[in-house]
Batch of 2 targets.
Target 1
Amino acid sequence: NTTATTFSLSSLEQACRQAEVNSIKTALLAWGRKHFSRSKLIGLAELKNLIDDDALCQQLDLLDQQLWSSKQSEYQYGHALWQAFKNYNINTKPTKNASTSTDLPPLYKQ
């Protein structure tokens, strides 16, 4: 069951450093499920549609190409993907936080 995978920032970083494409994909999908509150997120293309960041989307495309390539060449973009992910993650807040904010006044005045 892929939806049960939990996200670990260190596991994503390690997978990127070691260029382990399947581990990178698994970690990114786990992050996407948590970050976007999408328990049914199953593919990189779906994740890419949720991300508004050209650099990270480009890296997801390269990862997807590697995963589907008939040539078994070494994945060269682990470091670039990690950098794009860090930059995106620093500049965005999880959807969950955004959805809890409202324009309603507080229930009790202080």
Target 2
Amino acid sequence: LSIIHSIYELYKITIIINTSLQKQWKFSIGTATMKNSCDLLEQIILAKNAPKSMRGHFLEKAQVFLEVYQINTRVMLEMKLCNETNLFKAKETATKIGRMLGGWIRATRK
């Protein structure tokens, strides 16, 4: 699925962001952001393999992880904790994932 590929790209960007954070932020907001991207990937894989009747549950949980990820990256951007270019790449990729995820959620509700 292309959403899985996009989340993988987001995860790679997140690793780059996390390695550039100062130590005090790396083990707080950096670790939380890494965990959110992994949890997002996990929920999408679970949704992909789940029966159609259960997909909505996993997709909604994935949407929550994506929203928390976006909040974390916004905080990093506003506090200027790392390179803005990488944060804008992450934001763009997260927005793309959000559109794909929203479409998948709408499709499962029909």
